[in-house]
Amino acid sequence: MMMIIKKMIFILLxxxxxxxxxxxxxxxxxxxxxxxxxAPMEDIKAVSNxxxxxxxxxxxxxxxxxxxxxxxxxxxxxQEHFNENYMESTQFPKAKFTGTIDNMTAIDLKKDGxxxxxxxxxxxxxxxxxxxxxxxxxxxxxxxIIATSVxxxxxxxxxxxxxxxxxxxxxxxVEISIKSNYELLDKM
Amino acid sequence: xNYWIKCSRFFCLSILMMGSIISVSAQExxxxxxxxxxxxxxxxxxxxxxxxxxxxxLQSIENTAAGVLDFKIAHRFGVxxxxxxxxFGLDQASMRIGVxxxxxxxLTIGLGxxxxxxxxxxxxxxxxxxxSTGKKKMPLSLSLFAGSAIKTVAFSEPERDNYFSSRxxxxxxxxxxxxxxxxxxxxxxxxxxxRNLVKTKAEKNDVYxxxxxxxxxxxxxxxxxxxxxxxAPNQVAPDIKNSFSIGFDIETGGxxxxxxxxxxTSMIEKGFVSESVGNWLDGxxxxxxxxxxxxxxxxx
Lengths: 188, 300
Prior knowledge:
The complex is a heterodimer of chains A (188) and B (300).
Chain A: H1 2-22, E1 25-38, E2 43-56, E3 61-67, E4 72-73, H2 76-86, E5 94-101, E6 113-125, E7 128-141, E8 144-154, E9 173-184
Antiparallel strand pairs in A: 1-2, 1-9, 2-3, 2-4, 3-5, 5-6, 6-7, 7-8, 8-9
Chain B: H1 2-29, E1 44-45, E2 68-79, E3 93-102, E4 107-114, E5 119-129, E6 132-133, E7 141-151, E8 168-179, E9 184-195, E10 206-217, E11 222-231, E12 243-252, E13 255-262, H2 269-274, E14 286-296
Antiparallel strand pairs in B: 1-6, 2-3, 2-14, 3-4, 4-5, 5-7, 7-8, 8-9, 9-10, 10-11, 11-12, 12-13, 13-14
């Protein structure tokens, strides 16, 4: 009897810890985050190639972070105003996303294919948090994983004010595009 | 006996496994991103110590960005103590029209023409050090400025032997600045103005001065600026005063408007450093403005 209980505990432990070993995490430190806004007088776009993200394939948990100061613009003054007047990047250095891929069970990152993902979570920009839900795509080919997503945010949701003198140059709505190559995270 | 050894071994193994599971799940509750480890701190350059490339009259530490043309129009009206008859100086105006252009991110050149004594000026401004935090720490920014000016107004004594070189003025300036916080910046500008021709023997050809300037931000787009230029004694005519100016900056997208009060009429170094005659206490003060409009000629 004692032996059976011991064996059961042992098997249980192996199972639980085995599950941990299978749990695969993926990451990137070179995620591309870009945004685009169209206003009557000016189109604004900027890109950062230093977004970092970790995805836990076991439970679909996903996190993203990007430094606001890493966004590069074509116009130098625009970049200065973006940091100084709108994003206040010294005070709020990062934009973050913390959420989950809700249909992770339908996605197998070890098998080639194209997968649609439903992502939901909290997006933090300019120190303000808001729940968002969007679609993303995972393209798995020859062991490479490319994730992409495009979604829109409203500046007003994140407390980013646009003064009336520049309202024809800055749109209220901004389209954000994300693209990243996920690699396996070897943490041990 | 054997059983107990086995049992204790098993027990130890279980505890070890339990421990590893607990530690893994504890880690999972944390930030997933923390798994990526601490990213190396990158060098972060300090931007926007001042809103534009002038504090008021003085050159600020700011350069014009590479490929950007900054078109500047500056006005100084007559003196406030002219009274209502001159509408507090608004009847007269001295102006400078000029352009600054950023050749590279560390080199700016500029040209201008002032109505005061029909003077043309040109300058070069080179950025040597940039204030930064992170991996490379630099407590302040340093730039060098060199400018020359040609006074083209007719010579006051045409019967005398007049040389073209007598029209020339040269200015050399170091610019040291630090952005102490988002809202507060200070600058020191040690300056030498060389004048080829001076009125009397008592006046020196080389004038040494120390400019000081600062800004205090009131909001994201407005600030209060002030500057003072101290002249070392016994270099200039006795009626020359130290230049003092106080102003207000408003930035609206591509424009910067600077409104100010100053006791200097000229808007170029040789003038406001070594030729300011207004006395603040007597109300010999000019209202004036600088308008800056930037055009991006070359995109990155």
